[in-house]
Amino acid sequence: TAGCLLYLGHVLAAFHFAHGWRHAAAYEHTARRTEAFTGLAWGGGLWFNHLFTLVWTLDALAWWLAPQAYLHRQRWLTLSVHLWLAFLAFNATVVFGQGATRWVSAAAWAVLAALAGARMHAGLPPSGKEPKR
User: Fold this and answer.
1) CB-based contact 75:83 (threshold 8 Å)
2) Fewer CB within 10 Å: N-end or C-end of the chain?
3) Per-residue model confidence (pLDDT) at position 33
4) Quick one: 62 exposed, middle or buried, by C-beta within 10 A (0-12, 13-18, 19+)?
5) pLDDT (tens digit, 9 = 90+) per residue, 96-128?
6) DSSP string of 85-127?
7) Three-state secondary-structure class, residue 33
8) CB 20, CB 28: distance < 8 Å
9) Residue 105 and residue 95 in contact, taking contact as beta carbons nearer than 8 Å
10) Which of 125, 126, 131, 122 is nearest to 112 (CA)?
11) Over the stretch 1-47, which tens digit does the pLDDT of each residue have?
């Protein structure tokens, strides 16, 4: 929840301070950043950012509004949502990140990967729920 709220603050600040509340400006910025990395001037990644915002917000709300249903939802759904969010967050922070942000993020992702690997090695599910005995 805290991460989602910080991210929403980031989005609001970016649209206010960097893009003047203009979607076209955000699209152009995304196109320039994508072109610098891939050689293709395409701002469509902005729509993936919007989808990311919606999915993460809905996921956090689901946890608060129906915690028992959230904890007992299908494992494939939880893994799909969280892996997709992680994939986009990794790309935003490491692949498209710059300078110290890229390297600090890469180190944080390495720590998260190690923790996930240790959890899997211990036979614990990624959801945090203990296995039934």
Assistant:
1) no
2) C
3) 92
4) middle
5) 999 999 999 999 999 999 998 998 888 876 665
6) HHHHHHIIIIIS--HHHHHHHHHHHHHHHHHHHHHHHTT--TT
7) helix
8) no
9) no
10) 126
11) 999 999 999 999 999 999 999 999 999 999 999 999 899 999 999 99
Indicate the burial class of 20 (C-beta count within 10 angstroms; 0-12, 13-18, 19 or more).
Answer: exposed
What single letter denotes the amino acid at residue 61? L
Tokens standing for 102?
């890229």
Query: Where do we find the tokens 């759904």?
Result: 77
Taking the C-alpha atoms of residue 43 and residue 28, their distance in angstroms, rounded to an integer, is 6
Q: Are 19 and 12 a contacting pair, CB within 8 Å?
A: no
Residue 22: C-alpha distances to residues 47, 54, 82 (Å): 14, 19, 29
The model's pTM is: 0.84
The pLDDT value given to residue 65:
98
Residue-wise pLDDT tens digits, 54-84: 999 999 999 999 999 999 999 999 999 999 9
